[in-house]
Write a structure and sequence with these properties.
By secondary structure, the chain is α/β, with parallel strands linked by helices. The chain has nine helices and 14 strands. The strands form two sheets. A seven-stranded mixed β-sheet has the order 2-1-3-7-6-4-5. The protein has a seven-stranded mixed β-sheet with strand order 10-9-8-11-12-14-13. Strand 9, helix 7 (about 215-225) and strand 10 form a beta-alpha-beta unit. Helix 1 packs parallel to helix 5 (about 165-175). The radius of gyration is 23 Å and the shape is elongated. The mean pLDDT is about 95.
Amino acid sequence: MDENNLDPASYLYIYSYREDERFLCQLEMRALFGFDTQLSILESGLQIEPSRSPFIKERIDVIYKGKCLEDIVQKVKDLHIVHSTFKVIFVKNDFEKVGFEKRREIEREIGLHIRGEVDLLEPELLFGILKVNGGWVFGKYVKSEAIWLKHQRKPHSYSTALSTRVARAVVNIAAPHPDGIKAIDPCCGIGTVLVEGLSMGIDIVGSDLNRLIIPGARENIAHFGFSGDVSVRDIRNVTGCYDVAIIDMPYNLCSVLAPEDQLEMLESTRKFAKKLVVITIETIDSIIERSGFVIVDRCLAKKGAFSRQIIVCE
């Protein structure tokens, strides 16, 4: 079997997150995969680009599974890497501790039984070997790139804006399968959500009532080489039809909204969006229900003593 015929049986995602990010991470899992886990490893038949999530560290496209390492050694003998150089990486996890020397020994043993050219410095193809649940898994290895981290260095920012890490997770929750999806951030502020959405190739537009902030949002988007529609517009004047809207409810001292104003915002959103992901520091369940949306999932995103509710509505 050569590298052109390595169809994965499933995908293993290795997660890394802080304890205060657990609930947000699990909400993103449910959006992307339809279920969550308390563990740091998730297996699914769905192929998700690891760099989409701020919490996925690595992915293994599973080719072989074995009860013991010798099972994997015997199976990789069938591999013939013809067109690429390769390298085998031992993938660590929190539940199966293996020492450094033993990891290098396992990498060498697996690599020696694969027919092909090894390149330890600049391989064209990476394989991962992972010990999990008492067994072993082998497959193509894909490492995540922390794209969201690069977006922290934008020309303009707000002290009250979402972090790029949270914003990226929120976009995944809003548009987990983005092909053909039209999204909108009708209170886009400085454009944090827009940058994350555009960086993932999502068709997302933005608007905001505050005309003073729109130039900064446009500059932030352009700074990373993206282009998108960002306009000065009251949420009550949004037209068209969108599959999902993302709204970070205003909460700073200059943007305190009365309940009736919050209701009007959500009622307006109901007219142009089928689905809504709303971020709020207040409990607004009754307002959401009065607007015509139904809450289908939620979580609490914490950072120190500060908490935001992420609420998914349809």
